[in-house]
Design a protein that fits this description.
The protein contains 14 helices and 11 strands. An 11-stranded mixed sheet has the order 8-7-6-5-4-3-2-1-9-10-11. Helix 1 links the parallel strand 1 and strand 2. The chain is an alpha/beta fold. Helix content is about 40%, strand content about 15%.
């Protein structure tokens, strides 16, 4: 049975700054990936440029330093995306990043992104076109993604290639890295599959098991050393791949501590991994003030309370701040329990 977090009262000593925010500017996408955590092409009234601008202004007053724009595919709403990027850089002096499939990137777009974006991430799902295209459900998508990646690299954009290993593609991961490296990309990030969106129901069938992850870890360490590149992982992914490098700024769980995720319809979540899971919703910015949600949302307060008050078995563990009892999203998916500690912990 799910243990719902108790409602807590925010007091005036609140100190958490909202330093990092990811915003879906659209649910629309030209692809239909089998695992899409955002569940792209979901119908609804998307936030307008003006609504997002108001959110950004309020977030700056709460300490915002870095904002990411995602989707869906953000370049489907190109005019909106470019206006938001320009506003962030020129008016708010924020660091920006975007997450894109790369399939719609033109040379002109790449020039603008190289100028306005501090980092762009592009995900490649397969070394073979048939593997990539089967995951995206669109023929020719791998070719289009690689074309977009090349365009951005040619304009000297700061690019990181994302890798999402699944049963259908994990044995091609090192080949993907080789290809992107030959194009000129030297930064890579591995992402564990999230049990959200379209992957929620099929998660156990398409995600890797322990044996798969160990094999992949070994292969990634070999290629990383051979090419002298970093293959980094954030907090959630490091639960599955503890031997890979820590992504700067993601060494521990910072959900609701200094970041939030806002979906295209204004729903607020503690982190991107939890987005789309209604049980993790902190409310909606169309019905609540952003500052009130950030400071007083029961779900956000639960995360902050839990981080400092973990399960009893974790409280005397010297490794707690490395694993924090496991990813809350993953444990909720497996056990429908917000408060459970990682059962396979060896500490």
């Amino acid at each position: 049975m799910s243990k719902r977090p108790r409602r807590m009262i925010w007091v005036s000593s609140f100190k958490n700054k909202l330093e990092h925010m990811d915003i879906e500017i659209t649910k629309r996408c030209n692809l239909s990936c089998v695992h899409c955590s955002a569940k792209s092409n979901t119908k609804g009234r998307e936030m307008s440029f003006s609504e997002i601008k108001i959110v950004l202004d309020k977030a700056v007053s709460l300490g915002l330093e870095n904002v990411g724009f995602t989707g869906g595919e953000p370049l489907i709403r190109k005019d909106k995306l470019m206006r938001l990027l320009a506003y962030c850089k020129q008016d708010l002096d924020l660091k920006t990043h975007i997450h894109t499939t790369g399939t719609l990137l033109t040379s002109k777009d790449a020039s603008l992104l190289a100028e306005l974006v501090d980092e762009t991430s592009i995900t490649i799902f397969g070394a073979l076109a048939q593997t990539h295209d089967k995951i995206t459900s669109v023929n020719g998508s791998q070719k289009a993604t690689e074309k977009g990646l090349k365009a951005l690299l040619n304009k000297h954009g700061n690019v990181r290639t994302y890798l999402v290993p699944m049963k259908s593609n994990y044995k091609e991961t090192t080949q993907i890295i080789e290809t992107a490296y030959q194009m000129g990309c030297s930064k890579f990030r591995l992402l564990s599959l999230s049990p959200t969106g379209r992957a929620q129901e099929s998660f156990d069938d398409i995600s890797l098991n322990l044996k798969d992850r160990r094999w992949l870890t070994s292969e990634l360490m070999i290629i990383g050393e051979r090419l002298d590149i970093d293959i980094d992982v954030g907090f959630c992914t490091r639960q599955d791949y503890p031997q890979l490098g820590e992504l700067h700024g993601h060494q521990t769980c910072l959900a609701a501590e200094n970041r939030m995720h806002i979906d295209a319809f204004g729903e607020v979540f503690p982190c991107t991994a939890s987005s789309g899971l209604q049980a993790f919703s902190g409310g909606n910015i169309r019905t609540h003030d952003l500052a009130d949600l950030w400071k007083g949302s029961p779900m956000f307060q639960f995360f902050r309370y839990f981080h400092s008050n973990p399960p009893l078995k974790c409280r005397s563990c010297s490794e707690y701040w490395q694993c924090m009892g496991g990813c809350r999203v993953m444990l909720f998916h497996r056990y429908r329990d917000f408060t459970r500690a990682k059962p396979d912990c060896k500490s």
